[in-house]
Amino acid sequence: MGLKRANDQSTPPAANPAPDASRTQIRWLIRRDMEEVLLIERSSFEFPWTEEEFLCCLRQRNCIGTVAELDHKIVGFMIYELHKSMLRILNFAVASDIRRSGIGRQMVQRLIDKLSQQRRREIVLEVRETNVPAQLFFAESGFRAVTVLRKHYDDTCEDAYYMRYCLTDDSSVPFVPHNRISEYDAA
Ligand SMILES: CC(C)(COP(=O)(O)OP(=O)(O)OC[C@H]1O[C@@H](n2cnc3c(N)ncnc32)[C@H](O)[C@@H]1OP(=O)(O)O)[C@@H](O)C(=O)NCCC(=O)NCCS
Q1: Which stretch, 3-7, 105-109, 153-157, 180-184, has highest mean pLDDT?
Q2: 183 CA distance to ligand 1 centroid (A)?
Q3: Ligand 1 atom having least distance to the Cα of 138
Q4: Which of 30, 46, 80, 158 has the CA that lies 20 to 30 A from 116?
Q5: Segments forming the whole domain that contains residue 160
């Protein structure tokens, strides 16, 4: 991610039952969410951002914070930057007890939906080489590792993968499977 931190080790391997999507609300992060956001941050990363780092980042004009709320409880957050032609995810986590239930996917999809509205074409981020759960998550969400950033972090000698999601011209067209077998039968 943007600030250099260690990866989380506590992601449960098995999927949780997906919460009803209509119960999950994604909205702007506001000042009074910080306490819950910091709890998720601290339980997700070995080198968590401090409150001051969050606030400093969010004071920038091009920096946006969002949270996912489930039954009035904050269950995830995302901090990202707006650039001319892309969005850059700086910090992102879902509460460990609700991972693998689709919250992260909903938050990333919300960001992807913004791309076409804002005429930005890409979302980029850095992920630690040891943070395999996050790499798998982003790969599943359509991101691809495009570069290795050697010894990217100050706290360890880890590399980072620079991952990118790129909106293609046909991204908005729903995928319709092409059934070649039925064509063969009809011939
Ligand atoms: C990465 C993270 C935000 C994903 O959030 P999440 O809500 O658990 O993700 P989702 O439930 O939406 O997962 C969507 C898909 O991604 C993949 N995925 C997510 N977590 C995975 C894991 N631990 N292992 C393998 N695949 C995973 C799966 O394909 C999953 O679909 P499935 O559950 O139907 O198999 C969450 O694991 C997290 O907060 N990690 C700690 C903080 C972190 O590493 N942040 C990113 C820093 S770069």
Answers
A1: 105-109
A2: 38
A3: 16
A4: 30
A5: 21-171
